Amino acid sequence: MGRNTRKRRSPLAVRAIAASAALAVAGGGLVWANFYASAGESKSKPNATLAAAQVATIACPDVGQKLTNVPRQARAGVAKELALLDRQITEAYKRLAETRQAQSRDANFVNNAILGPLKSKRSATIDRIGINIRRVGGQVPQGMAQLATCQSKTDQAQTNAGGAQQGGQQQGGQQQGGQQQGGQQQGGQQQGGQQQGGQQGNNGQGQGQGGNGPVAGDFININQVQPNGGPKGVNGNGLAANGNGGSRGSFTTNCGNNKNEIRNSDNVIVAPGVSNGAQHQHDYVGNQSNNAFASDQQLANAQTSCQNQGDKSSYFWPVIRIQDGTQDIDQGKPGGGQDKNVGKIVEPNQVQLKFVGNKRGPVVAMPQALRIITGDAKAFVNGLGNANTNWSCTGFENRVVTDKYPICPQGSSVVRTSFFQSCWDGKNIDSANHRTHVSFVKGDGSCANGFKAIPQLQVRLVYSVPAPQIQNGQVKNAYAVDSFPENLHKPITDHNDFINFFNQNTMNKMVNCINNGQNCK
């Protein structure tokens, strides 16, 4: 139900049974082959593989990102309707995954049986969003009705997976290990066999995440990535705010690596009051009471895992799972197997939380309860407008990829890095679409639109995961972030969340340290 879970793992594996079919849908951009897996949960052979397939997912306009001016009185109701839109997409995606044979027999099946009914449901939900807004005197953006229409989406990474030899060096045209953002069309990985809500682990073979990605084309050997200077995010999202000038200090907070195993599939920022609003599990450090129903007062009074008890902030990100054929405590549950997130959850070995200054000048204090989301959990279907990802390996952190998972050599660990937005509008702790109250610095460190520079949160997560193996275009023992099902566990969907609950004394100390060029804890 999206509540906090403390996990104890039990190994389960599922035998994948490949079947063959091919479907070309005129005008739909779909090509299907070798498409489904068994429904049962049973032990599988360690070296079993599923044949490569190019598979589509469902891409729907992100209604929430269009709502930039929702009256506060309407936001709770709108948030519930937006969460319903997400569930509708998930249901349609599952039907897409479970009806391969019907699709092979009827070229119009996807449009008539999946996309058409989905549009009708979305239209009704979008209408209710408008009612919520108008009821309190707000204005509904023009063109909302057009957002009901969804489309099918193919996956270039799946097409290119057959050439991903020797640890995924072959990127299918994605230069420099996927640095070219246009190659983001990786997407629809999800390998046909998705049935059963992603329950099957498939021993991490071929399709990853129970037939729902990742695939071989989503991985790159870090040795094949050219040095590119380290984390820079995506298209200007996620540049470092600090530099040789301005406020050069830092403040580091140590909040552990979630040994308490506090997790849930909620997101109190985007979907307050909605259980399983994220449809994927988050690791939480810092604040120990974060769930969909937590009020600001409850968060401010909560326990914290941070050594500095003046920091009750909440830091959270999607978990990483290893697709080695085992399952976790959320098998078959919302946010887990029910939402096609399968495999063994692994905690980061290291969690580094550092706040830095701005290379143009001093920073100001963040207001309590300020919410910041960086990156986009739906970037595969939404595009790169809000994407902010950095993947690398220890010892190779001057080589970063954004739309690939790195395969690290022996003795090296996987690194995820996020540089947050650090320009604030000076007024709001959140905004209707959870984006417009904060922004990223420009290349020179300046803030646009009269926004004020605040300390930039830089998060670095390090994981010891077995190196995935690429054999005959298939991936074995893959790892991946949890995601919304239709986003196919793509690396570009990585994201990170922060809610500020430093007490005022500790926040003042942070600002003074940063502005005075000191490195504090």
From TrEMBL:
Start and end residues of each stretch annotated as Disordered: 151-248
Coiled-coil positions: none
InterPro entries: DUF1996 (IPR018535)
Feature: compositional bias, Gly residues: 164-214
Domain of life: Bacteria
Protein's organism: Streptomyces ossamyceticus
Signal peptide positions on this chain: none
Domain DUF1996: 269-500
Listed name of the protein: DUF1996 domain-containing protein
